[in-house]
Design goal:
With 372 residues, the chain is of the alpha/beta class. It contains 14 helices and 12 strands. Strand 1 (46-51), helix 3 (57-72) and strand 2 form a beta-alpha-beta unit. It binds beta-D-glucopyranose.
């Protein structure tokens, strides 16, 4: 009775307080804030995995890894991708169907993390645990855990790689012409990557070492809708025409490999072929490894999708046993309503120099490095 009355107040703080108050009689754990953890659930339960549209290779890899990994762990996996033409509505429907089918854990790589409040609430209401995978789900109390690579660190590594690459390639220059790109505004990761990079780059912009020739330094100006390479090409083409007809571009902050390749190709297509720009990336995509080995792209980031999927499945397994999943960060990921307990993995910066070492445990990528 007390619980029902309190729930109807719809105030997150009071609800959380009530749950904590209940914990001694219900035997619930405290660390992760998930109310269903201690209960556990049958070992062959359905685990839903809702992935966004395939905007980069990591998402393509994740689907099969989830299928295989969930089956191996004894679960019934229900793995769905949002279609590219209507991804937000698609994903909302897929999550609702997972709730209806009785999934015990729903792992979500959000297309738009701000538009899943209703589905997350329905999932919680049904007793499922909601795990945000790679991208945070925002503005809702109904997300229990977050599993991702440390996104701010990714941005910092990208910013530092841009500085290092410029200094190494053009040691005689005292200032560099650069441009900045960021990801889709709908992706909670995009500002975190950008802010991490600017944490490193802003002091160098302020002291004149870096010159953003277009003046476009605001994330609204640098954003790339849908993470689509054609949108990066379009913007880079326009930047080249307006700003680089009589000067060279030395470097570009690119938030991932898909956009990095589009940017590199645009610069060459716009006639700059004898001055190699330093371009960053992320994801260690197969198509970018040759760019890196041939000196066209300076850096990428290795975020081993196998490890991230494994971590998400480990969370589901803990929940199945009625145990609290492991988290290592309870401060960084405030989604606007709550700080979501996170399990963060460490990203690795990769350049031509350390590629063989970085991919030593990944035969597919190592083979591409060896191919050159
Ligand atoms: C992921 C990146 C990816 C991007 C586009 C982000 O949320 O963290 O790895 O490049 O989405 O798919």
């Amino acid at each position: 009775m007390k619980k029902i009355l309190l729930a109807t107040t719809a105030m997150a703080a009071i609800a959380a307080f009530a749950l904590a108050g209940c914990s001694s009689d219900s035997g619930r754990g405290e660390a992760g804030g998930d109310s269903s953890a201690a209960a556990g659930f049958p070992a062959d339960s359905t685990i839903g995995v809702a992935l966004p549209d395939k905007t980069s290779e990591n998402w393509v890899l994740a689907g099969q890894l989830f299928e295989d990994g969930l089956a191996e762990a004894g679960f019934k996996g229900d793995v769905q991708y949002a279609g590219a033409s209507n991804p937000v509505a698609d994903q909302q429907q897929q999550i609702s169907a997972m709730v209806t089918s009785g999934a015990k854990v729903i792992i979500i790589g959000a297309t738009d993390g701000k538009q899943l409040g209703t589905q997350a609430a329905d999932a919680k209401e049904s007793g499922a645990t909601v795990i945000a995978y790679d991208r945070l789900i925002e503005n809702t109390a109904d997300v229990d855990y977050y599993v991702a690579f440390d996104n701010f660190k990714v941005g910092q590594l990208q910013g530092q790689a841009l500085l290092d690459g410029l200094a190494a390639a053009y040691p005689d220059k005292s200032s560099y012409n650069i441009e900045l790109f960021s990801g889709a505004a709908t992706d909670a990761n995009a500002p975190v990557f950008f802010n991490g990079a600017m944490d490193v780059l802003q002091p160098k912009i302020d002291d004149g070492t870096l010159k953003v020739v277009s003046g476009q330094t605001d994330i609204k100006q640098t954003a790339t809708e849908k993470w689509a390479p054609e949108n990066a090409t379009k913007r880079m083409d326009a930047l080249m025409t307006s700003n680089y007809s009589d000067t060279e571009i030395d470097g570009v902050l690119s938030p991932n490999d898909t956009l990095g390749r589009a940017i590199i190709d645009s610069i060459a297509d716009n006639g700059q072929t004898d001055h190699t720009p330093i371009v960053t990336g992320q994801d260690s995509e197969a198509a970018s490894i040759p760019y890196i080995m041939q000196g066209k792209q300076y850096s990428t980031i290795y975020k081993d999708t196998r490890a991230l999927v494994k971590e998400a499945i480990a969370m589901a397994t803990s929940l199945q046993k009625g145990e609290e999943p492991t988290v290592n960060d309870t401060e960084s990921y405030n989604n606007g309503v709550k700080v979501v307990p996170a399990d963060l993995l460490t990203p690795v910066i990769v350049t031509k120099d350390n590629a063989a070492e970085a991919y030593a445990e990944n035969p597919d990528l190592l083979a591409l490095v060896q191919k050159g």
